[in-house]
Amino acid sequence: MTSRLVSLRIVSLSSLSVGLALACVLGACSSKEDPPGPSSRAPGVARIQIEDALVEPGVPVRFRCTAADPDGDSLTYVFDWGAGGTLPQSPEVDSGTMSGVDIPFTQEGTFQARCRAVDSAGNEGAWSPQLTFIIRGVQPDGAWGLQVEVVGQGRVTSTPSGIDCPGTCGVRHPAGTRVTLDVVPASGWQLVGTSACEGTLGRCELLFDADKVFTVRFAPVLDTALSWQRTGARLPTSPEWSPDGTLLAAVDGSVSADGLLRIWDATSGRVTRLMAPVPPARFTTVAWKPGGGAVVAVGMSTGRVSVLDVAAGRMLNQWPVQAGSVRTLAWSPDGTRLASATDASKEVHFWNPTTGERAGAMLVAVDKVRRLSWSPDGSRLAMLAGQGGGFSRWVEFHVVGTQGPEELLTGVAGFAWSPDGTRFLVGLQGEVKVYATDGYRVEATYERAWDLASEVDWSADGRWLGVAGAARALFVLDAGTGEVVVEASQPPLPGTLMGYDAFRFHPTKPQFLVVDDLPPVLDVFTVDSGAGTWSRREVLSHHYTVEAAAWSPTGEVLASSGDEGEVRLWDRVGDPLRTLSGHGGLGVRALAWNTDGTRLFTGGDDGVINVWRADDGTLAQLPIRREPTSSLGLEMVAPSPDGTRVASVLGGTVVASERGVIRIHQVSNGAELFRFPDGSRQVLSLAWTPEGTLVVAYSGMSWDFWDPRTQAITSVTPGVDIAPLAAALSPDGTKLAFGGRPGLSVREVATGKLLAETPFAFSPEALAWSADGRRVAGGGLGGQVFVWDASAPTLPATVIGFHDNNVSAVSWRPDGSLVTTGGRDASLRVWRFTP
Which of 302, 308, 301 is nearest to 338 (CA)? Predict the structure, then answer.
């Protein structure tokens, strides 16, 4: 059926009637009453002047402002430069007349000032564009300044002295001076990032070769701030079970993830610890210390090794091992020695992990080593080496303490010792072989349809052999007979025969894990040998970015979605309920619940809107397809309060043939009811008021209303020269929050009147109101998560958490106790919030 426009009327309101007309659109007036008379209008956009933008401390800065009032009311000008407190204001003057204030400054630094007009009726005009001014003492030629910004709770001091921030946050030094900055978080807080600086996160050095701004970001420590979290991984590598099997570790090899170490609870799949190296280092490999406890060794891209207590989240020791990037680590069975190899040499070195000192003579392999494996008795070290296929890969065996390999077997892709070390398993082309360690004699050969047996393992109880082959072939064999216990092969990736990158048996349970880096996979399989069956559990919640998150109105279910195309439902404590797959493996960027929480609406990059039953995860009806073949994914979906309509937005475009990106469909049959005629503007928010009016907010600080009764579109443009990056409609439909530089602002929906504003500078990607309309949560570039108090005119902000990359999604639990955020670090995090 061909879609058509129906009953389209676009209303252009005069500034005199805009407030009244929009209030009626929102259901705030009745046609049975006489309308009130025209109200006083807000002043226009102000213009600021600073007579001298460079002054010495103690000398007044002369701020001047001018604006016109459409009603001719007298005006007072208010000035702001981010100092907080009561804002200075000028004497009252006639409309269009310049006035100002003279303010002396004692603290040196670079500031940005703005002004706005307030008329005699109390109506506030829009802020002017900002102007920069500098407070600087008399300095010799060639002196430069440093301004420090602290976001969160912590302290920055300098050597030579001059910076002690908060407090004294600006200093000047002669050109060529090197200043060391020490950054210390407050108790219960942690350092999460700084602007460019030479050195570590906690201490770095700046060269005074220009005026500079140094920004420091702090956030509450995860252990105290998090209720629970789930995480994905961009390039999972080096997976290892803890010795008791209760934890699972892997390194995220992605450059964007900085080589994070991720630790999961092996039973629930919840993340228990994330640890990051100090840039520019990246974690490259991980190995658990044998025995009890939660101690791991991690290799780094800088040729160093760290020993970490992952239960306490602290480093026990760190030392340099070799040049290059550490490729593999292996603990001796008694935990007293650590073997290491890098990508820069053929050498294998041995270390005392407690002291970081050498623990024996090095061994030299035939070529660079990609994996190390101690024999269970600690007498031998097996080294997998070589990179290509066939005879260019091998395993060589070295007796510890002697030089040169004792044996070398060619064509070997995978290797594993038997639990008692008397035998070992190798993976070859089309077969696996069991060898006796004594004499390196072949005892058994098993062939199955796995092509190259690239990954093999031997179960801890000695009963099973595990094989991961090409095209994601997975086999568990009886170690005594070679018979197949289960075949758990997975569908191969289209166009490739690549297999999994790792196969590891659980140390105590009939389980194994497999890992692949592209696309990211970390799955745990449980084997029922009696029935010859298996089950699979996905550990990674979302592969790359958590695109959307939404709590149900009951607060009992949290929905999240990612660019891998899955929608996952979680209970309130983070246990998985079910996975919804209905968008053809394409990204899902839009989630929305109906008012009673019985239906979940999802929108994907396939241009389809799905409606799911929340109780059983089945489709409640046929999908609503926006485009026959859509090249633009759905960015937002919004069901109407009565559940009969759903609005949706495609990615913005200025191409005429793809306009009409905002559409409203009938939920019951998918019929198109209405489409917006202009698709050229970026949509920041799409939401319905409780009365059933659709509000669409745009990046140009403007918004439209669509009245389903009249089919009319009404527009509001406050006339502010600001380009917000995110927006959100309050639950009662009366206020819009906009986020972007120079800060967060809250405006009245009906009139565009500014209700509250903060100059707090951040770049948001997501905003959300609490259910009671008292607070706004958000985050974006930089990864910090904020909550603003929307009941205060200055919108005071609190940092409640952080991500290791940008924040991409945010949602409040209805009772206001939890704030959920998704990030481009593939993490879904649920933060505790106490007002």
Answer: 308
Question: With bands split at pLDDT 50, 70 and 90, how would you rate the model's confidence at 278?
Answer: confident
Contact 509/244 with Cβ under 8 angstroms?
no
Asked whether the predicted pLDDT for residue 725 surpasses 80, the reply is yes
DSSP string for 13-59: --TTTHHHHHHHHTT-S-TTSPPPPPPPPPP---EEEES-SEE-TTS
CA–CA separation, 465 and 418 (whole Å): 9
pLDDT in tens, 460-482: 999 999 999 988 999 999 999 99
Q: What is the DSSP letter of 693?
A: -
Sign of CA dihedral 792, 797, 798, 802: positive
Place of tokens 């929608």: 567
Question: What letter would DSSP give residue 656?
Answer: G
Identify whether the C-beta of residue 674 lies closer than 8 Å to the C-beta of residue 6.
Answer: yes
Indicate the pairing of strand 764-769 with strand 170-174: unpaired
Count, in order, helices (H) and strands (E) of the chain: 2, 72
**Cα gap 12→707, rounded to integer Å:** 14
CA distance 512 to 590: 34
- Could you tell me which residues come within 8 angstroms of residue 402 by beta carbon, excluding any fewer than 6 positions away? none
The residues that bridge with 54 in the sheet, in sequence order, are 134
394/521 Cα distance (integer angstroms): 26
Sequence-separated (6 or more) residues with CB below 8 Å from residue 770: 776, 777, 812, 816
DSSP state of 403: S
* Cα(411)–Cα(394) distance, integer angstroms: 5
| Secondary structure E strands in 597-680 | 599-604, 608-613, 624-625, 634-639, 645-650, 662-666, 672-675
Report the C-alpha gap between 734 and 586 in whole angstroms.
35
Closest CA to 618 of 598, 637, 641, 590: 598
577: which residues sit within 8 A by CB, 6+ positions away? 557, 569, 570, 571, 617
Rounded alpha-carbon distances, angstroms, from residue 231 to 220, 339, 499: 19, 30, 23
For residue 711, give every residue at least 6 positions away whose Cβ sits within 8 Å of its Cβ, in sequence order, or none.
6, 7, 8, 9, 674
Task: Return the residue matching tokens 């707090």.
Answer: 760
Tell me the two tokens of residue 87. 């804002």
Supply the DSSP string of 161-190, one letter for each residue.
S--EETTB-EEEEETT-EEEEEEEEPTTEE
Residue 799 bridge partners (DSSP): 786
CA 770/CA 262 separation, integer angstroms: 31
Taking the mean position of all CA atoms in its chain, how far away is CA 398?
Answer: 44
**Contact call for residues 352 and 359 (beta carbons, < 8 A):** yes
CB 159 within 8 A of CB 146: no
What would the two tokens of residue 541 be? 């919640």
Residue 23 has pLDDT above 60, yes or no: no
pLDDT in tens, 597-615: 999 999 998 889 999 999 9
**Cβ proximity of 801 and 777 under 8 Å:** no
Provide CB contacts within 8 A for 11, sequence distance 6+.
21, 712, 713, 714, 715
For the chain, what's the residue count? Answer: 835
- Show Cβ contacts of residue 404 under 8 Å, excluding neighbours closer than 6 positions: 364, 398
Structure tokens at 561: 């979605």
pTM, rounded to two decimals: 0.78
pLDDT of residue 6: 31
Give me the percent of the chain exceeding a pLDDT of 70.
90
| Residue 616: exposure state from Cβ atoms within 10 A (0-12, 13-18, ≥19) | exposed
Task: Output the six-digit token pair for 109.
Answer: 């630094």
User: Whose structure tokens read 């760290």?
Assistant: 306
Integer CA distances (angstroms), 545 to 299, 356, 805, in order = 26, 38, 10
